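HUMAN: Please help interpret these tokens:
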Amino acid sequence: MRAENKTKIKPQKKTGKRVLKLALALLVILIVFVLFLVPAIVSSGKVRQIILSKINGSIAGKTDFADLSMGWLKGIKVSDFSFNDNAGQISVQVKEIATKPHYGSLLTGNLSFGQTLIDTPNVEINLKDLQEQKTKSPAPKRPAGEGMQPVVLPVKRMELVLNDGNVKVTDPKSGTVELSRINSKLNLQPLGQQTDFDLTMAVAQAGKASEIQVASTITPKQQTGWSLKGTSGDLTVDVKDLDLESLGPILALAGVDIQAEGLVGAHATSQIKDGQIEDLNAGIKGKNLQITGAQLKGDRLQTGNLDISVKLNQEKQAINIDNLQVTSDWVSVAANGVVPTTFKSLGDLLGADSNYNLKGTFNCNLAAVSSQMPKTLGLKEGMQLTSGQLSGNVETSPKAGGQKQVRAYATLSALEGAVEGKKIALSQPVVAEAQISSDKAGINFDKIGVSAPFAKINCAGSTKLVKYSAEADLAKLQAELGQFVNIGQYQMSGVFQEAGQLSVEENRIAASGSGTIKNLRMSSKEGLSASEPLANIDFAVNMDRKKNVVAVDSVIADASLGRFSIKNGVVPLGDEPATPLSLKLSANNVNFEKVRPFAVMFASFPKEMQLVGIADSTISVTSEKKTYKITTDSTKIKGLKLTSPGKKPFEQNEVTLAFDAELNPEQKAINVKTLKLESPQIKITKGQFSQISKDGKTTLQGQADLDYDWSAVSVMAAPFLPEDLTLQGKRKDSVSFISEYPADQSDKLLSNLNAKANVGFEKAGYMGLDFGPTNVNVQVQNGLLNIAPFATTVNEGQFNFAGGADFKQTPSLFKAARPMQIVKDIKVTDATTKKLLKYVNPIFADAVNVNGIANFSCEQLAIPLSAEAKNDTVVIGTISISKLQLQASDLLGQILALAGGSVSGTVLTLHPTKLVLQKGILRYDDMQIDVDNNPINFKGAIGLDKSLDMTVTLPYTTTGRTARTDRETSGARITLPLKGTVDKPQLDTGKLIELQLKGQLEEQLRKGLGDIFK
């Protein structure tokens, strides 16, 4: 049995060997398959299509290449590569991309490439619309506190060659620049080994070319990676005759708004050791340089020659400045010495054991600079500086005890010029001086001072505590400095004095002190003035530099016009503060009578209005992110009194105000959540208001419930209402509105307005028209104002109206809705005569005791809503007056006196007359006024500027007869011109005799001819 089993097992061993051999054979075949077939598959057209499909499906453009080939020994090669973005702004063409990767590195993740060639790359960039895209999609900001991290390259080794590259950038404003003949070699080695890099290229524009060469070797440390820290090597840069104007498209591509012209050449060599510049030798020369940009406000900074020379080396923690020279047409700077690499404190420079020293000088020709940059420097328009030097020096010197001292000195001298031919000059130089030393206790500011003809500042102390004093004469400040720069539109006088101290610790700065302003007076060219005899200011604040926040312990200002204070406030600093704002502002015993002159000058308060009252208020200001919340529930005004000339004073024993508002300056958003005003005659409840700007649109909306007495409101609003308008009656009304318009076009607010309100009054008076109880429904829809038809009594007659305005039109016109009889049977008075009728007919110029019944039917009415467009007023209609009686009309008296009559006791009738008011001129062809039965006819034009161009046809004929309405008149009536103005019209009677003789001659001639032809 055992023998049989053995014979059975032996064949199984042979089978296993066969399987093993078969597996090895299959593996060899598979390897051979991979070696021979993978390159063939990768090089196939199918793989090319798959790769292009994947790339083009994930980018905004089209990528293509003619051929992709792979060989284990030859490497990977792509020929005729191209890319074009969908916008037609970027185009890339590459003749060939070839590389020989180390395939084994692909398995480890440490990519390594042998010789890599990019042959004849050609890039074209058209900046049309590209800057707009950048504006719409700004680069994301780096999170606060996130530092720069060392760059980790996925490629460990590469021998890259870029051959005959070309980059062309076209900008619509700057033209086209071409970077041609770009040749570069990069021998990238692993960290810790030397990497070599060199680059040559030509920069060309409009046929002018310059050469740039860069060569460098660097050896980064393995521990620090690809960063400056720990890196050693050398760098050489050569630039030959670079035309700065050719860089315009490159700067535009980078989003830098600078335009430059001129030629620049440079040569620089540098040695870097362990991340520090060990040796630097550089020279830069420029010719005919000009620089301008948005920040220069249209100015052009220019110099015919620029020469910069720098030679320095670094050893440990010291920089040895062998030479630093900067020279141009208008400035020179020179410096040398030894300074520390970092200034942790001035003690590094001034310590007894330090070998540091510094010596430097500078000089600037202000006349030359100001001629190039008047707008940037804020000089007055038309002003020209003829001389002026800004010069100074700084130097370290030894001091007793082995310590050192820094002395710095700067002076502004010989500043002179002319404005419109008038010579101007500073009466004395402006001098700044500083002396700083150190001892065992630390740094001492022995003297820091600024002296000018109009101000003095002095400081002394240490880095821990500095005491200062300052004094300025505001009148001298304006007289001296105001000759050269615009420092405001108001004339100033007064003396400002301040003294205080600054305490500085590692993470804390504290400031405290007090100041006074004596005899402050401000005045304007319009004759307005405001003054404050004495204001005292005390303050104490602390700044936490670590938390970047200012704690306001107290700021108190005491003046004759009131007391203002802030206590226990917190003000965060920086764009993204971690601590919210918190302020509590108090105003006590604010005297409105003394505040009023300042309000007239700076807040457009009506100068003819008097203001009295005492106010007390506490306002809280807090913040959350970038939104500020402003609230008050304790604002009171006692004894408020407003007085306008000729008006009954508006008096309120007490007015209280409460509101809760939010403000976001970045979004230009205002949101008044609640507004409540309480006074005996005016109440605002449920007041809300908001303005939000988002996505290029501003939305303005609000609503309020109002409870008010017109007699109080009209007094308050008197300066903003027509002079003769009076309103009476108590009302409870609601108003709401909303408008959405382009954020940068506030003039479109009304054209997009939607609003509704009910307004009215018990009584109103305007231009001699006394209106009875009136209620008007007002609606605005998409900028279309509509006033619903309404009727009311006026001067014992009737007033009817309906109309609207289209705020989308320019100018906007308030129009009657349709032809209508606006005035029916109203009583004419002296007031209506003086304000209205004298512009209709000259006989009303100085008439008194006027009465009668008037009617006016309007065909067309259009009144511009802006005073500037008053000549666009159009009124077309028919007027008539019956039972008209008047006295003391000089013109009518002149007319009736010609026949020995008088105005007294006569009854006049103004026949229905069509009149047209257009372009500031009222015209009619024939306005007949019957004096009893005697007709007088007026024709011509009356200007709103009170001019007259009229004729009057008298009720007398040239034959001496009197015309009557109840019978035919034989003979021609006398027509005379009017002279004078609307206020004082006069008949031109000088032509009366001439016209009478002419009429008699015509009459005799007519009789003679009649006898001949009988």
User: Anything to note?
Assistant: DSSP finds 14 helices and 53 strands in the chain. Confidence is low (pLDDT under 50) at residues 1-9, 131-140, 142-148.
